[in-house]
Design goal:
The structure is a homodimer. Chain A is of the alpha/beta class. Chain A has a domain at about 140-320 and about 365-395: 2-Layer Sandwich (Dihydrodipicolinate Reductase, domain 2), CATH 3.30.360. The first copy, chain A, contains 14 helices and 15 strands. Chain A has helices at about 20-30, 45-55, 70, 90-100, 115-125, 140-150, 170-175, 180-190, 195-205, 225-235, 310-315, 320-330, 335-350, 360-375, and strands at about 10-15, 35-40, 65, 80, 100-105, 130, 155-165, 215-220, 250-260, 265-270, 280-285, 285-290, 295-300, 310, 385. In chain A, a hairpin with a 4-residue loop joins strand 9 (about 250-260) and strand 10. In chain A, helix 4 (about 90-100) packs parallel to helix 5.
């Protein structure tokens, strides 16, 4: 293939080149207006594989680094995409903002409230936007539901549910040989370690940090049996992992209370056999959407006491961005959501404007992990959310930041 | 019709003759081996309607009372069925046991932990069984799921969910003219005021009070909007009820932790528009059942990551009692569950043996209401469950108490 020109492109570095990082890299390389002059991973073999991948796709071979600080020192990149381990997202994001680079960080939870505060303070001090790349915010159903909420279909919101219900036992157990960090978290932590796939879209429905906020949460963890049983059944009782006493409860349930009286129930459920679900539910004074039966009930429209298929409402409430996307051709992983999410980031960098998911969103959503661990450790004691906006949420309004905005629906002309 | 003879019958009094009491009365009158010599309600018109109902069905006209203590003083009745308001169940049950009558009490929650203790102590002191008539424990699906649990289909149980999700706005608002007590509770209380339809069957799956117990709970209530909005929309903004500031949150979420590390999530959701559900979910190390999509997933049996219809598993796991019941002809209200539940009570009285739902179950399940109100009042603070067995749960074993037993599956010869 002919090498593509980098002229006039958004130049991004990618930090973290495991499976997820390379997946995001491939999507970015598919964008005409993006170039990737620099990539980084602590493991050199991953750097080489990713660099080869760039060349194979007809792009110039990027410079490879093992130390992200060297990548950040380059003056030819405008932003970084971070796809490292959960526990390193915040520190890399903070250093990136200090280096003047837009941050697009993969999802995960915080290790402390302090690192959430540091994210916020660094972004405020440097003026550099920091976006959590919460792809599920750009899922087709999530965006349609957001559009329904904004159009008032459910009335005043009262209660929501969401979660990450994904049987990851084999992936987790294979973490040692795959050099994946998840298993180490499950060996030592106990809480909702991965809240944002469910909670991000719900937080947008609830105007969190823009006229509303999360006030407090309580979490409860079940016993931890699923992973151990899977290991014994599949790897044998003499396997070294069969001796591990995992701390991470199989099912962690979290209840969140909002400033305006809405409640959110969040589930983390990744070590038991089950089909995938994000357990979505949005419920208001006029109706309810539920993911698990893929249904909607709207007072005065639905037959009394009877669910209707979600798909019946989709044509009317398809999000404008998805209408356009379907015409253009849906692409990339996770049903097309990854591409849209990355485009939201890339176009923010390109236009030098705020990101649709901002540093306050990121700090608040990540904080759920820390607060949930603290609540579990204290037997379900309610933990207060910090107000990462320091009071600005009261007067901050949902704002349009381009067509990828999640706070206001961008309507096509 | 010819008057039926009362000879050799189980003689019961019915206390509380609103809609539910008269419904139970009709089912009892349909049983050949039951007679109803006495009925009671504080409202005389209800007593007369119920007495007329008995005669219309060919039975002798029962003696009517306004004071239940006069009914309890009769020496010709062996038990009472209590279908009064939630807040009077315990005191009537306690007096009935003191009068030597078997108690079958309608469902509801406790007003205080003290009345739960008093139920237990009175039953222990008098030796009289006290059964909560939790009809949902005898629902067809609930019994099949119980059978699946006991057969080990789900492996070791880890997490359960349940609830009472029932749009009752019209019934509640009509409570004043219908002289129904629910609206008064919603005007003054805030918690899971009606936990047992969901929680009773789940507690039986989890062997609560027989080798396991509820340790603690935390509850969170949403704002209260649904009932007020319904009243304004349907009765008008000048209706007296439109001025009422209801205290009962629209959705109350409760998390319970068990002694063996299982968690239970319970929802109370009765003042928003939605189709009915008891939100059942039973999840273990081998599989999961979920009511809302009417599906099951069993590792090694179901296609990977794919739900299967519940009905596919029903033929194999139909509860033996329901196999027999279907052959005999399902009868009575609530899909046949009311009849089975009342038969469980009647046959316990007849055989003078323990009831399948006992006073410890009743005290524990009712206590959820009190604890949930207390937790909501304290911002979600976790509340400890009393051990109503005073330590006996450690050595109590699931026991067969006839074919209606809910702790052990009675298999037909």
């Amino acid at each position: 293939m002919a090498k593509k020109s980098n002229e006039g492109n958004v130049a991004l570095g990618v930090v973290g080149l495991g499976g997820r990082g390379r997946g995001l890299l491939a999507i970015l390389l598919g964008m005409d207006d993006v170039s990737i002059p620099a990539i980084c991973d602590v493991l050199d073999d991953r750097v080489q594989i990713a660099a080869d991948q760039c060349e194979a796709l007809g792009h110039p071979r990027p410079e490879g680094y093992n130390d992200y600080r060297e990548l950040l020192a380059r003056d030819d990149i405008q932003g970084v995409v971070i796809a490292t381990s959960w526990t390193t997202h915040a520190r890399i994001a903070i250093d990136a903002m200090k280096a003047g680079k837009y941050v697009g960080s993969e999802v995960g939870g915080a290790s402390s409230l302090e690192e959430c505060w540091e994210l916020v303070k660094t972004s405020e001090l440097t003026g550099i936007p920091c976006m959590m790349l919460e792809n599920c915010c750009y899922g087709r159903n999530e965006m349609a539901v957001l559009n329904m909420v904004k159009k008032g279909l459910f009335g005043e919101l009262i209660h929501c549910q969401c979660g990450y219900e994904h049987d990851l036992r084999d992936e987790i157990a294979m973490g040692i040989e795959n050099r994946h960090y998840r298993i180490h978290n499950y060996k030592h932590r106990n809480g909702d370690v991965y809240p944002t796939h469910g909670l991000g879209p719900i937080a947008k429905c609830l105007n969190i940090n823009k006229g509303n906020r999360f006030l407090q949460l309580s979490s409860m963890a079940s016993k931890a049996k699923g992973l151990h049983n899977w290991i014994v059944d599949n790897l044998g009782k003499d396997h070294p992992l069969a001796q591990v006493d995992f701390t991470q409860g199989d099912v962690v349930t979290t209840m969140i209370k909002c400033a305006h009286g809405e409640t959110v129930m969040v589930i983390h459920d990744t070590t038991l056999p089950r089909p995938y679900s994000r357990g979505g539910r949005v419920q208001g004074t006029r109706g309810i959407w539920m993911e698990d039966n893929n249904s909607i009930y709207i007072e005065g429209q639905s037959p009394q006491h009877t669910w209707e298929p979600f798909d019946k409402y989709l044509p009317k409430y398809e999000h404008p961005l998805w209408r356009e996307y379907i015409k253009m051709g849906v692409r990339g992983s996770h049903g097309g959501a990854d591409y849209l999410c990355l485009r939201a980031f890339v176009e923010s960098v390109k236009d030098n404007r705020p990101t649709p998911i901002d540093v306050y969103d990121m700090a608040t959503w990540m904080a759920v992990t820390t607060l949930s661990e603290q609540s579990v450790a204290q037997g379900g004691h309610p933990m207060p959310f910090p107000d990462f906006t320091n009071g600005m949420w009261i007067e901050r309004l949902p704002e349009l930041v381009g067509k990828y905005s999640l706070d206001v629906i961008y309507e096509q002309e």
